[in-house]
Amino acid sequence: xxxxxxxxxxxxxxxIEVENGLSVMEGAIQNDIxxxxxxxxxxxxxxxxxxYVEEKWLNKLPKAKEAExxxxxxxxxxxxxxxxxxxxxxSEELDGLIVTTPxxxx
Amino acid sequence: MKxxxxxxxxxxxxxxxxxxxxxxxxxxxxxxxxxDKAGGQCIELYPDKPIYDIPAVPECTGEELTNKLxxxxxxxxxxxxxxxxxxxxxxxxxNWIVKTNNNNEFxxxxxxxAGGVGSFEPRKLAVKESxxxxxxxxxxxxxDKEQFKNKNISIFGGGDSALDWALELSKYSKINLIHxxxxxxxxxxxxxxxxxxxxxxxxxxxxxxxxxxxxxxDKIDTxxxxxxxxxxxxxxxxxxxxxxGLIMKLGPIAEWGLNMNKKTIEVxxxxxxxxKKGIFAAGDICSYPGKLKLxxxxxxxxxxxxxxxxxxxxxxxxxxxxxxxxxxxxxxxxGKK
Lengths: 106, 337
Known about the structure:
Number of helices of chain A: 3
CATH architecture of chain A: Roll
CATH class of chain A: Alpha Beta
CATH topology of the largest domain in chain B: FAD/NAD(P)-binding domain
Strand content of chain A: 15-25%
Radius of gyration of chain A: 12 Å
Distance between the termini of chain B: 35 Å
Distance between the termini of chain A: 32 Å
Strand order of the largest sheet of chain B: 6-3-2-10-23
Shape of chain A: globular
Number of strands of chain B: 24
CATH topology of chain A: Ubiquitin-like (UB roll)
Helix content of chain B: 10-25%
Mean pLDDT of chain B: 95
Number of helices of chain B: 8
CATH class of the largest domain in chain B: Alpha Beta
Shape of chain B: elongated
Strand order of the largest sheet of chain A: 2-1-5-3-4
CATH superfamily of chain A: Beta-grasp domain
CATH architecture of the largest domain in chain B: 3-Layer(bba) Sandwich
Largest sheet of chain B: 5 strands, parallel
Helix content of chain A: 10-25%
Order of helices and strands of chain A: EEHEHHEE
Oligomer: heterodimer
Low-confidence stretches of chain A: none
Largest sheet of chain A: 5 strands, mixed
Number of strands of chain A: 5
Number of domains of chain B: 2
Number of domains of chain A: 1
Radius of gyration of chain B: 24 Å
Mean pLDDT of chain A: 93
Structural class of chain A: alpha+beta
């Protein structure tokens, strides 16, 4: 199973095996990773599953759709490497993906 | 204090269908919601987005679903209390007393909490100075535009609210429109108007950049923004308007003594009652083994909760299960002959 590395902004890190086909958000929620709220449940409507993707992984991810970028406008302290973790679908290619949760989601 | 059979907290699809399920049993209800209109997440988060999993409705938008539900409960002439948030829930013998932030008080034997993920509130600015200026020089909504005349106004956001207010207020104030990226999302007409006003020197567009700090002692003097290329700019500002949409906050629900699981209320899956007799939870806000956060699950949950509500509101009457197709009583409640 692909491993996803969840860092928080304090420097803590958790490596979780996430099933192929689940989103990075679902991987976090199912494993009680703090820092991801996911209020809307993955319908790209709330921006509370916002994460920063490690630079080297940015190009390996499918590009964010317009609706996702629009939603990131609403996120707490968005940066260039901001993504919504509900839109990142886990696959073998993403084995080792590193994401960092923001200091808060709202 | 208003008396009713059931107080419904939340006017989303599940709260609206609760009105129906109670209404056909002859129970009165009132609905309270923090938003200014019914529909909950359907109307606030995805009014134009399609929903494909409402049984027998192959496709509809959040707004269409809301309008259909409102039509379906019209015969019950239910009173809605919008723009109001429930602050307090108190026990009073067999009844519950609910108080809102608008000082309305209700009493009923039943409460159905259909509050989704909580109440919608504006997303606030991250900088620490924002709190001290809030509601005086920093606003998350425009209620009275008169107070924004002849000012230096800095508007944050890239969506319709930010663009529309930039246009409107540019008629009598100097506007800085500040956004984290170059693209704005708004109606093409609005965008071209904004560009025109920029050329005329009425609106100053600052992109791609973000707010660093707000300066001032008793009022706002300046704001500091940082561009993506590292450039820092200080802008003379009297008023800051911030439009980053709404966020859902659980709010006071957590303080009503209900058993919670993360941000959800634990219920049994027989009648969706919480640990407090007469308080039910349905829709996204409730949790029980196997819970799915689907609108259709919420419909099922309120249908069952309504039966228990009947028993509590009419302790001396026997509950009789009836079909809408064949029950003359239900049909007359629905205004059908």
